[in-house]
Amino acid sequence: MTTVLPSQKEAPAGTYTFASRPRAVHSRSKYRESTAEQNDGPASYGNIMYDRRVIRGNTYALHTLPTAAQLDPAELQRQPESRRRAAARKRPKDQQRVATPEPVEGRKHTDVQTDLYLEELSDRIEESNAGCQTDAFLDRPATPLFIPAKTGKDVATQIEDGELFDFDLEVRPLLEVLVGKTMEQALLEVMEEEELASLQAQQRAFEAQRDAELVEVQRLEERERRRHEEKERRIREQREVLQKEKELAEKVAARAFAQQHLTELLPSVYTVLQQHGFFYDPTQRDVETGFLPWLMEEVSSTLERRCAARTVLDMLIKDVTTQRVEAFHQGAYLSPDSK
C-alpha cells in the first residue's frame, strides 16, 4: 500500500499544508555519552527509569548527604550557570555507589555506621521538658510557593483548525494500512493453525506407523529368539549324542584292549600268584594252620609232662638209692663181725 503525501505545490490556494521530506532515522549509540558531552552538546532524551537521579525502591535506608554537602536553593540561584552545571555533574557521582546485593532468604540487612565518629542509635529519642514565659507571637504568614527563575524566551504559534492536515483525508491511508495489516496477520495466523493441524495429523500418522513398525519388529525379534533357542537346543542335543557315542566307542575299545591284554596276562599272573601262595588248598591250609599247630602244642605238652614225670621218678629213685646206701652203710657198721 502506498501513501501519497500532499505537497505544497498540489495544495489548493488559501490552505496551509506542511509535509516533511523523508529522512533516515539516526542510530542511537548502545552506551550513554558522558555527562559533559550531554551538557555541552544537544540534549538527548531517554527513559527516566534508567536515570541515576531517579530513586527507586525503599527510601527509608537511603544514604543522605551530610548537611555540609547539601546546597541551599537560594545559594543555587546566586551561583552562575557553570557552577550549577558542575554541581549537577558532581551530585550523581557522589550518589553513585555500589549497591549491596539482596539478602538471602531468612535474613535481612542491617544499617551499619561507617562515619569517622560513631553515634549511638536508639529507638527512643532523648527528650526533656523545658518551659518559659514569652510574649505572644503573631501568626506566621504562609510560605509563598517557590517559583524557579525563568530562563529562556517563550515562543508560541497560533494554528487554526484545519490548517495542519485534513483528518478524514489523512486517516484513510492509516486505516487502510491497519486493516490490511490486521487481515494479513489474521490470514497468517489461520494458515499457521492449519499448518499446525496438518503437522499434528502427520505426527499422529507417523506415531501410528512407528507403533505398528515397533510391534512388527518385536514380533520378528521374538520369532528370531525362538529360532535361536531351538537351534541352540538341537546343537546341544547333538553334542550330547556325539559325546555319548564317543564315550561308548572309548568303552568298547577299552573293553577289547582289556580282553586282549588279559588273555595274555592271566596265565602269568595266576602262576606268579600261585608261586607266592595266593592260591592254596583249603584242606591243606586248614591242616597247616589249624591241626598241625594244635598237634604240636599237644605233643609239646605231653613231652613236657613225660619229662616232668621222668624227672620226678629220677629224683625219687635217687632219694631211695641214697637212703638205701646210707642204710647199708649204717648196717655194715653195726654188724657182729665188726664187733
TrEMBL record:
Residues 1-45, 71-108 are annotated as: Disordered. One of its GO terms (cellular component) is cilium. Belongs to the flagellar radial spoke RSP3 family. Keywords: Cell projection, Cilium, Coiled coil, Cytoplasm, Cytoskeleton, Flagellum, Phosphoprotein. InterPro entries: Radial_spoke_3. This is Radial spoke head 3. It holds the Pfam family Radial_spoke_3. It comes from the Eukaryota. It is found in: Cytoplasm, Cytoskeleton, Flagellum axoneme. Residues 203-255 form a coiled coil. The keyword Phosphoprotein applies.
